[in-house]
Design brief:
With 334 residues, this protein is an all-alpha fold. It is 73% helix and 1% strand. The protein contains 13 helices and two strands, in the order H-E-E-H-H-H-H-H-H-H-H-H-H-H-H. It has a two-stranded antiparallel ribbon with strand order 1-2.
Length: 334
Amino acid sequence: MEKKKVVLDQFDFIRAIACLGIVLYHFAVEYGWPDIFNNYVGGVTYGDIYVTVFFFISGALLFYNHSEVDDLKLFYKKRALSIFPAFYIAWGLMYIRDVLRYKSLFYRGNPASIILSLIGMDGYLAFKINDYYILGEWFIGAIILLYILYPLLTWMKREYKWITFGLVILLYILSLKINLTGMVSFRMLPSCLISFYAGMLFVEHRKSAEKYWWIAGILLVILKCIEPGNMNIKGHIAGFLMAYMLYGIGTYLMKINIINKVMKFIGGISYEAFLTHHVTICLFIKFVPADATVMMRVILLIAILAATGISAVVLKQVCKTIMSLGRARKKNIA
């Protein structure tokens, strides 16, 4: 049995900032303001950067806590419980809403495609299949696939370190050159894998970020000034630099009690906020026209952040309650 690791506050800091970054990005995209939350440079968006950070931190956290997977069944059970209960509750509520609205169980046709929602792949495959993707983001499907691959990935990293490193790089390069699916290259699994694997590698070298995070900050500014090349590559580099910089900054800021509490709170509800924020944004922006005063737009943004936080807390609590009742019932039966 692997010993319980010391909690690294920097990971909570990164997760909280990435969560806020994604919410602000989608607000800017859906509302059309302000561009500062949307465009990093050229075709690279802050959405690309913060999604890369999310994959990066997911790989880092998983490898930090489970550098080896001894019990596959337990590993997959824990990963499933971290994703599906909250997803099913949130998706189920939205699905029932739409069923009542359209008065049909399969209001989008193609009944079989509802299976994609049940396995969390609806957002990831929505570009290709007319399915029942209602909430959450494509990220969820990609992270499920990466979790499935993770035990094999850790074994390969342990037994064939450099071969694994080279294979991950090779698959990424091939994904830039060959696209058999029609999916945006940034969302293809090899593209997600390189961010995830970079996070795993970072765990072993994270101490350097505490000293040299400022270099990553300078490089981010320089990268922003460079004329765009390959958007995929540039987005990944910016994401890696952002994660590295945030880890270093978090080392110092998380020593401040109030910041520590706020960031841990946001980090703790980041997945639930990830599930609910897009629906919340699309609902709220209907009430404030894009040409409203700056003050009204700022109030709208604050309201969306508050509503997203509240919905995330409620979803997390409901999920906890249902799972606690399930465990209690199982214990009584036993």
